[in-house]
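Convert to structure. Protein one:
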Amino acid sequence: MIEQLRVDDRLIHGQVALMWSKVLGTKGIIVANDGAANDKMVAATLKMACPSSQKLLIKTVSDVKQIINDPRSKKMSIFLLVNCVKDALALVEASQKMIKEVNIANVGRFVNSDKAKIFASVELTSDEFEAARKLCTYNIPVFHQVTPIDPKLDFASAINEQKN
């Protein structure tokens, strides 16, 4: 079961590796990212950032759709990472019953285009904004929470306050 699908443009970093995997009680991290899956240097960097207590898979979004729908995944405790809302939406659409919650934590800060600032660490292009809006229509909690000690902020309420 996917304990949390986190949208974080940095994928694995200290916060994710040290805090979230412990709080969520996961035994494995899956990075669903086409670029990382196809770039040995990026994959090696992510492997170095992953704590030894976690098993790590780095796969394309398409491959991860198959993995999370495999009945064996239901028995595992998995932390799933993507770097954009559109990938999160694709995974939820493929398998919403296997994903407990979606945390849109850090995204869009490194994209150079017109963006809507939803939270300090969340800036969405119009395409990402529409993906977030659609993501909030599924029967899965969608929120913003940077660290486990921060409050969970409802994402649907935040995007409904925007003018997009």
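Protein two, convert as well:
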Amino acid sequence: GKHIIFMDVGSDQSLDKVQKLFDSTTALQIKMSLDNHDFAISYVLGLSHALNIAFSKVLSGSGEKKDLLSQLSSTTFKDQLRVAKRVTDENPHLYYEIQHLNKYSLKTIAELSQAIQEIFDSVDKGNEADFVKMMEQGKAYFSDA
């Protein structure tokens, strides 16, 4: 269930040598360009980190006790709490570097901000159709059909 990403940085011979080191393993080997890697990672790491940092920031600023929220929580909230706790337990300097050093991070964070604004607007304006449409877009994205 693990994967290793290989990026060609100018030496096909070196890349082939390194890939062969993992041929006997069950790891999924993925080869991509450095630019494709950074773009994908801005979503895989950047978006998931930013979302969980924002979630944690909102909760920590809420004034509500963590224990009370945990007692009241739904399955979704409990799952999100677990993920957010794992993120906040990580090295904040490393997570900053993941965001700061990836040229695609600001684009991804801006997309997250826009999505939050669209959710806000649909709820604030009582626009159920737009809200439902966003959820249906997500469902379609995750659908195997």
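The longest helix spans residues 34-60. The CA atoms of residues 1 and 116 lie 32 Å apart.
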